[in-house]
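User: I've been trying to design a sequence by hand for this structure and keep getting stuck. Would you show me what you'd pick, starting by listing the structure so we're on the same page?

Assistant: Good idea, let's start from the same input. This is the structure you sent:
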């Protein structure tokens, strides 16, 4: 099999210049006879302002890698720098500080049922200490995602797609330097999904935000600067969009690449 076409920057690139710098990362679950390794020698660089889509078959380690980058799991082996900080060895409070600069979008919306859409988004603004105009910021982001007429509705009165857009608004409202998204458009119709990725493009271009997105939604592949494919816990390919399109016939594309 041909070697992966890797497009990560050269090894001598300064980690401080990168949003994410991963070197020789391994990860396993369990111990002893139950130990199962799920990530093998992963090395990836994500520069500021880049949108990267990660694909791969079910069980290939995509979500595990996403949560490691988000400082939601403890690294076992290798090096991981996120927004200039080495995550290995950080204490709980330091990991929280790293997470404050990351916007997380998960498949489960995780909204507070007792709060309105606007209040759910306001909570993210409060976490960074901006209390004065929190409602205005929340309303603006919800409006940009097509929810201007739902800002004061509680989750029980929202559809699944609307709840997901509230969760996305919560992740984007503080204009984070890094967005980690796990199937952000899965519950959305075509127009809503396009609105979401367009907003991410704006943040990437205007704010230098880096976006790493796990998705099987091939309707949004065109927004990617790079497409990374994980297979059996290893980096199988890392291609820019033009190379990916040129090397994959849409009629013969292995759809398992886009299955979680």
């Amino acid at each position: 099999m041909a070697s992966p076409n890797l497009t990560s920057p050269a090894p001598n690139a300064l980690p401080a210049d990168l949003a994410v710098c991963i070197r020789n990362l391994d990860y396993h679950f369990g111990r002893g006879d139950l130990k199962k390794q799920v990530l093998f020698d992963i090395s990836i660089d994500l520069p500021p302002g880049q949108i990267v889509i990660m694909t791969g078959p079910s069980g290939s380690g995509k979500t595990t890698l996403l949560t490691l980058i988000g400082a939601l799991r403890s690294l076992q082996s290798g090096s991981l720098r996120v927004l200039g900080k080495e995550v290995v060895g950080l204490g709980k409070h330091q990991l929280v500080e790293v997470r404050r600069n990351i916007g997380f979008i998960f498949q489960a919306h995780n909204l507070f049922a007792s709060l309105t859409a606007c209040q759910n988004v306001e909570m993210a603004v409060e976490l960074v200490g901006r209390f004065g105009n929190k409602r205005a910021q929340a309303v603006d982001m919800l409006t940009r995602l097509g929810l201007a007429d739902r800002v004061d509705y509680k989750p029980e009165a929202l559809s699944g797609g609307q709840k997901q857009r509230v969760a996305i608004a919560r992740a984007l409202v503080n204009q984070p330097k890094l967005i980690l998204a796990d199937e952000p458009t899965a519950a959305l119709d075509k127009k809503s999904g396009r609105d979401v990725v367009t907003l991410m493009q704006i943040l990437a271009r205007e704010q230098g935000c880096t976006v790493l997105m796990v998705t099987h939604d091939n309707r949004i592949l065109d927004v990617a600067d790079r497409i990374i494919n994980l297979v059996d816990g290893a980096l199988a390919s890392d291609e820019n969009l033009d190379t990916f399109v040129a090397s994959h016939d849409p009629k013969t594309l292995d759809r398992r690449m886009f299955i979680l």
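That's my pick for every position. To get oriented when you compare it with your attempt: Strands lie at 20-29, 36-46, 51-55, 77-82, 85-86, 102-105, 178-182, 210-214, 226-231, 234-240. The domain at 49-74+99-258 is CATH 3.40.50.300 (Rossmann fold).
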